[in-house]
Write a sequence for this structure.
């Protein structure tokens, strides 16, 4: 067999293994990223869709945040305007997670059968109130 | 000043369009004055953009808050260093910075390129001018840094506290310099295709440029890791965030390119692949900018969403189509001069290295885009995170590490059994010794063991190379060891500089493997209370909460929690972590509070302390304590890598015209002559 052919075989093996690693990786580690409405639709269509690892992207309902005195456990509600889910998170929330304004969060975790989302991770985007002010000013 | 800046942008745009139009029309051929006007327009663009940048800087320094950009990114009480660096802190300013640096590089390419490549230069100017014009165009029509507000705020918003870190003054520009300088090799590649001068000439002309941009990207990425580590406070340095991935992508393809050009130089193979790689690298750099600015993918780094993203998407599509069409039309004249001789050869090792690097790039791109792709195909967003990237890339990364040891030592064309024995006996032994040592010490993490054992193997190959080189010089010239060592490097900069870069890379791998043994705990402590934490190196830390103090600094109100640290029963002093609330000059809070972590770095491990707040405003504090093994080595590896890169690029010495003779196996003889690479 010529070296060129051997190389092509080797290359094909590499491409195949990279492809396999990617496909397997997506299958094993991929999680749904849903809005509360989409999640509600999912659980309605498929009643077994609980305790599946997923992410919810939504806004924190203002005033819904309850923190344990030492800040290591936080309960709040997330909503996209139509559906609302209570979330409970054990751990240290990021600095950007505050009660003011409607901040956008991405929570990762599982929805329990009791309807409470148990988050293992909370990511918060800063509510840029100054940006909003400037944008308003510009339009004026 | 905004009027002047505005005007300068228009001048830059017109000059850029002129230069590109004349260059691509080909009318300059045989008309010296037109040809001169192309490079003249390139210098003129730079001058105009310099004026624009100075105008914006003037606005920043004089606190002209009527300029929206100035009000959005600075405030009266912002330390002056950050006022200067605010030029690239925001979307609009960074576009201006980008265009400015690109026009500078474009001018340097016109000025510094040796005369023998002069035929390429008008086309090079055309490409760089077109790209610059695109950036200026985006600024003028979608993100104008000179835009004024309808009113003048009394004070600006100030800079995001997470960007108020000395590292952030240089991390973005370094990364930008890397991204931007990729345009120059890309321009030469397009110029070679357009002018049909498809020998290795263009590759020689851009050798330094590719190294420069690779080096800037490496520095930028490493500084980014450092910034994430000291500023973001989650206790790590790489989270596979889309924007981090976007910076890694061109680095990966550029690394592949740096290796595969050697094959083209020495053996006349891979011409199409190399052109494809450099075009791909350029597109990935634009793609990275698109990801960062468009907000299509959620990321902690995102700039404010704007329609700038569409400009970049359109530019990406147009330049991709044009470049690949051009490559396709020249396809037949890019045939390889020779065929691969054997799988056991340096060519084959480099080919596999290239495939793996591109494989990593592909998987990172795939994972980054997966939310979008899955939504397009299946209608639901599915995201993949660090577990995906680690799962896919750790095995590939380990193979690459192994090739780092194999590639430089295995013979060109076809390695004989004798060559393999001679080159690899000692390094393989070094790897095996490392492996045995690790197993004996009780380490059980498979990937970490593999990484360290392979690092031992690669280190073995490099030490062996240096040792043989020094020995040969001592024998031939009777030099002392240190002299032989420095001369060895000085006379063969490309080769030994490359080895030093490899040393840096393997130190990175060692540092990465350390993170497999990270320890972490959270604790709520009253003053005087303490906790104990065991480190993977067997040290016991006793951490005692001393109390929380509050004070005001220049532009912030600070709560600082202090911990007294004992290691193995011996006092190691105090460490502090802060919660900061930044305020403007009227003491109004700006931004959300931010955390300043406390880090004590050592050769074995870092103690990393995060103060997460107090219980009901008392002095009872909530902490996260993290032990991060071997992180110091990451920064050290960065220094070695950069040092090696600089050695490789250092002008003069050790750079000779390549000759096919040296592509033959067996090279100890040439080594002493001092002109091998």
């Amino acid at each position: 067999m010529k070296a060129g052919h051997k190389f092509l075989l080797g290359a094909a093996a590499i491409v195949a293994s990279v492809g396999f690693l990617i496909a397997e990786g997506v299958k094993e580690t991929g999680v749904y990223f849903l809005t509360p409405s989409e999640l509600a639709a999912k659980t309605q269509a498929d009643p077994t869709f609980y305790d599946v690892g997923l992410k919810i992207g939504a806004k924190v309902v203002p005033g819904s945040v309850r923190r344990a005195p030492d800040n290591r456990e936080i309960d709040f509600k997330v909503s996209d305007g139509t559906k609302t889910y209570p979330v409970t998170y054990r751990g240290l929330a990021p600095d950007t997670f505050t009660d003011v304004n409607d901040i956008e969060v991405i929570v990762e975790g599982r929805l329990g059968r009791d309807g409470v989302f148990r988050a293992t991770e909370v990511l918060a985007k800063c509510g840029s109130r100054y940006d909003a002010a400037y944008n308003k000013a510009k339009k004026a | 000043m905004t009027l002047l800046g505005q005007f300068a942008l228009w001048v830059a745009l017109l000059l850029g369009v002129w230069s590109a139009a004349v260059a691509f029309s080909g009318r300059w051929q045989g008309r010296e004055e037109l040809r001169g006007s192309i490079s003249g327009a390139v210098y003129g663009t730079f001058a105009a953009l310099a004026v624009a940048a100075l105008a914006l800087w003037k606005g920043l320094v004089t606190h002209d808050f009527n300029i929206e950009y100035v009000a959005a990114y600075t405030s009266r009480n912002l330390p002056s260093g950050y006022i200067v660096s605010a030029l690239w802190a925001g979307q609009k300013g960074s576009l201006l910075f980008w265009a400015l640096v690109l026009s500078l590089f474009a001018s340097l390419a016109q000025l510094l390129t040796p005369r023998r490549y002069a035929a390429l230069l008008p086309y090079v100017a055309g490409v760089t001018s077109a790209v610059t014009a695109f950036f200026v165009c985006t600024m003028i029509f979608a993100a104008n840094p000179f835009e004024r507000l309808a009113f003048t705020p009394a004070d600006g918003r100030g800079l995001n506290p997470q960007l108020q870190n000395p590292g952030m003054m240089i991390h973005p520009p370094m990364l930008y310099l890397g991204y931007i300088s990729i345009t120059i090799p890309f321009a030469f590649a397009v110029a070679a295709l357009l002018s049909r001068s498809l020998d290795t000439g263009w590759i020689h002309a851009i050798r330094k440029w590719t190294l420069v941009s690779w080096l800037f990207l490496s520095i930028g990425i490493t500084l980014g890791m450092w910034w994430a580590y000291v500023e973001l406070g989650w206790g790590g340095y790489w989270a596979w965030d889309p924007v981090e991935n976007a910076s890694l992508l061109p680095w990966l393809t550029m690394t592949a390119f740096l290796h595969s050009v050697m094959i083209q130089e020495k053996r006349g193979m891979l011409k199409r692949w190399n052109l494809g790689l450099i075009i791909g690298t350029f597109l990935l750099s634009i793609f990275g900018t698109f990801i960062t600015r468009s907000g299509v993918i959620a990321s902690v780094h995102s700039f404010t969403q704007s329609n700038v993203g569409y400009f970049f998407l359109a530019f990406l599509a147009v330049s991709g189509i044009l470049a690949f069409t051009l490559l396709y039309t020249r396809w037949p004249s890019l045939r390889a001069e020779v065929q691969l001789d054997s799988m056991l050869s340096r060519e084959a090792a480099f080919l596999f290295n290239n495939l793996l690097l591109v494989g990593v790039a592909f998987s990172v791109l795939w994972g980054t885009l997966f939310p979008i792709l899955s939504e397009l195909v299946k209608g639901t967003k599915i995201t993949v995170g660090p577990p995906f990237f680690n799962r896919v890339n750790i095995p590939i990364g380990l193979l690459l590490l192994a090739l780092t040891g194999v590639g430089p030592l295995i013979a060109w064309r076809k390695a004989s059994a004798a060559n393999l024995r001679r080159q690899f006996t000692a390094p393989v032994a070094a790897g095996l010794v490392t492996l045995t040592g690790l197993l004996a010490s009780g380490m059980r993490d498979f990937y970490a063991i593999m990484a360290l054992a392979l690092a031992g193997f690669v280190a073995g190959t490099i030490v062996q190379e240096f040792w043989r080189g020094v020995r040969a010089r001592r024998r031939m010239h009777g030099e002392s060891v240190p002299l032989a060592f420095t001369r060895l490097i000085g006379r063969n900069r490309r080769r030994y500089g490359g080895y030093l870069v490899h040393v840096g890379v393997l130190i990175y791998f060692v540092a990465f493997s350390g993170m497999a043994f990270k320890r972490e705990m959270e604790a709520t402590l009253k003053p005087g209370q303490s906790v104990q934490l065991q480190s993977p190196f067997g040290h016991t830390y006793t951490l005692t909460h001393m109390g929380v103090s509050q004070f005001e600094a220049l532009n912030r109100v600070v709560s600082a929690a202090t911990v007294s640290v004992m290691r193995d029963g011996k006092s190691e002093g105090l460490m502090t972590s802060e919660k900061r609330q930044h305020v403007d000059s009227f003491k109004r809070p700006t931004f959300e509070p931010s955390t300043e972590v406390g880090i004590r770095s050592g050769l074995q491990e870092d103690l990393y302390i995060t103060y997460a707040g107090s219980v009901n405003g008392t002095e009872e504090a909530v902490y996260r304590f993290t032990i991060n093994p071997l992180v110091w080595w990451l920064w050290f590896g960065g220094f070695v890598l950069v040092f090696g890169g600089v050695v490789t690029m250092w002008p003069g010495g050790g750079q000779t015209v390549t000759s096919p003779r040296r592509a033959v196996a067996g090279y100890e003889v040439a080594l002493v002559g001092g002109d091998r690479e």
